[in-house]
Write a sequence for this structure.
């Protein structure tokens, strides 16, 4: 059985590498610089749009090798600061992660206790359900103008947007997890005359923990998706701003590097929560 | 009249609206201190509901339960429940499950004392090597042992068991029945147990409460198990002279009388407060006993 599993892992890894190689090869071919037409351009225009785009001697689409070079450049010096619009990608990512964590932890601090209350009381559950149902599908970015208007601080506004988008999965999952704790476990607590706090922390919380963790994992994923868009809007710092700034610079290589790093950070965040989730999961 | 340790007085339970017929009504019986009482009846007669009311997990629609001369009002650590589904907390180890009960009983005990006390009961049910296992790693019989250890560990005044062995295979069930018999003899425990297994009732119970079919179920009669505790052994039970008389009486009730008890009431009359007490085992060894006027319980 183990050998079968191992061989499957090996085969799938080989297939992944193969797919990647094919993809990169096709990309390399497609992005080959076209033969230079030698068009003459106005030097003023060239200055404005960048030499490469103006002459058309080279497509702005970079080859995988260009990406590699760009990525290496970013990773070898991630924390430099050369002015407001030129900071290392590590600093940008750190800003984004910081905002995500701030908004996410605030949301958890609100959603888990509130979800607990909602889950414990069918009355509150029903009373709050219409609000949750209406607010949940709202795109978090729709809150941005309202946040900017009321908070008047773009930093805090982006944290608020993360807060509002990550609160719903945690709230709903906590309420659901708490409401569906098995009756027999509650009966055990009742026959043992367990007090309300002890019951909440020793019975309901561990029983609902896997469901709560699922909500937390969904939330961190959404938060990381939303931060890029939010930072594109508010500007200043962060990986979303970096992507938008590089778009203005027409540096596709930098954008692709950023995309790769965004994906990697998202993966790490998700895996961290998956690991915590595994700790609180219990087999029945 | 001196009240029994557990005294069920005029208990009734309706589900839903008031117009609905009661699942059971006008149920009266008592359990003496140190007595092992089994309640037998078909499913749907409200056996589990009666147990839940005794445990304080359910409220009756009418009547009361008086324990130690006090009307019960919710669950209590004095009445430990062994659940049919064992109801272990799956995120805790065997030791954790029992320690949770122990520290609920004695919140001021230091950790080491709780642990030591819990381990003592794990040993009592023969699970010494499995203390650190999670419930998911245990077999059904072992899980129920943990349930029994948890109930006993809080040193309750009485045990309430809701068909504790019905989910187990016959072999495991037999072993656990022996164990319960031994433990109850050692600890002089007062036990009220629900079952639908006639042999289990004869093996374990000092007195068997027969319940008619629902809706409107009531107590038909009490069957005293006249086989002394010392003579009740699983392997030799069927050779005991009284065994078949008692067994036939119980089976006859379950098969025929339980659904037509109304007719018996019409013919012989019925006092719900004092259902008659019978001793079919004595009739088997001494037929003359049958003509002795039936005495009431208590």
């Amino acid at each position: 059985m183990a050998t079968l599993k191992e061989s499957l892992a090996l085969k799938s890894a080989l297939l992944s590498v193969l797919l990647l190689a094919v993809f990169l090869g096709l990309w390399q071919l497609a992005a080959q610089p076209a033969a230079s037409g030698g068009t003459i351009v106005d030097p003023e225009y060239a200055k404005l749009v960048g030499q490469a785009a103006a002459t058309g001697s080279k497509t702005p689409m970079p080859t995988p090798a260009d990406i590699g070079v760009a990525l290496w450049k970013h990773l070898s010096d991630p924390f430099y600061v050369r002015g407001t619009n030129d900071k290392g990608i590590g600093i940008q990512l750190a800003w984004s992660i910081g905002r995500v964590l701030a908004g996410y932890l605030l949301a958890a601090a609100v959603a888990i206790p509130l979800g607990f209350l909602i889950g414990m009381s069918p009355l509150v559950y029903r009373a709050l359900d219409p609000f949750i149902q209406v607010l949940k599908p709202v795109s978090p970015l729709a809150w941005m103008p309202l946040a900017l208007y009321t908070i008047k601080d773009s930093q805090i506004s982006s944290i608020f947007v993360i807060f509002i988008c990550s609160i719903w999965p945690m709230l709903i999952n906590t309420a659901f997890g708490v409401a569906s704790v098995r009756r027999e476990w509650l009966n055990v607590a009742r026959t043992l005359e367990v007090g309300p706090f002890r019951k909440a922390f020793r019975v309901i919380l561990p029983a609902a923990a896997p469901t709560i963790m699922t909500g937390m994992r969904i939330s961190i994923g959404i938060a990381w998706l939303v931060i890029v868009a939010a930072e594109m809007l508010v500007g200043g710092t962060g990986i979303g701003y970096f992507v938008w700034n590089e778009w203005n610079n027409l540096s596709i290589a930098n954008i692709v590097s950023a995309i790769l790093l965004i994906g990697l950070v998202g993966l790490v965040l998700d895996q961290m929560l998956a690991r915590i989730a595994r700790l609180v999961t219990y087999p029945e | 009249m001196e009240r029994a340790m557990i005294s069920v007085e005029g208990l009734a339970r309706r589900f839903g609206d008031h117009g609905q017929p009661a699942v059971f009504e006008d149920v009266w019986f008592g359990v003496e201190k140190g007595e092992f009482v089994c309640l037998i009846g078909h499913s749907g007669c409200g056996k589990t509901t009666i147990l839940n009311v005794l445990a304080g997990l359910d409220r009756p629609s009418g009547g009361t339960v008086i324990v130690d001369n006090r009307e019960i009002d919710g669950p209590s650590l004095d009445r430990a429940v062994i659940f049919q589904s064992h109801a272990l907390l799956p995120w805790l180890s065997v030791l954790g499950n029992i320690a949770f009960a122990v520290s609920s009983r004695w919140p001021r005990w230091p950790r080491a004392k709780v642990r030591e006390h819990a381990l003592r009961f794990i040993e009592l049910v023969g699970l010494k090597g499995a203390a650190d296992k999670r419930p998911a790693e245990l077999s059904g019989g072992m899980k129920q042992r943990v349930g029994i250890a948890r109930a006993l560990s809080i040193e309750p005044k009485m045990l309430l068991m809701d068909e504790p062995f019905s989910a187990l295979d016959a072999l495991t069930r037999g072993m656990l029945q022996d164990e319960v018999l031994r433990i109850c003899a050692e600890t002089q425990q007062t036990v009220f147990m629900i079952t639908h297994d006639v042999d289990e009732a004869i093996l374990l119970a000092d007195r068997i409460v027969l319940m008619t079919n629902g809706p409107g179920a009531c107590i038909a009669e009490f069957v005293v198990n006249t086989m002394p505790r010392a003579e009740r052994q699983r392997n030799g039970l069927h050779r005991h002279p009284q065994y078949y008389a008692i067994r036939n009486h119980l089976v006859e009730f379950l098969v025929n009388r339980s659904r037509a008890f109304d007719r018996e009431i019409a013919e012989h009359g019925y006092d719900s407060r004092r259902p008659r007490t019978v001793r079919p085992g004595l009739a088997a060894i001494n037929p003359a006993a049958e003509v002795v006027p039936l005495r009431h319980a208590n």
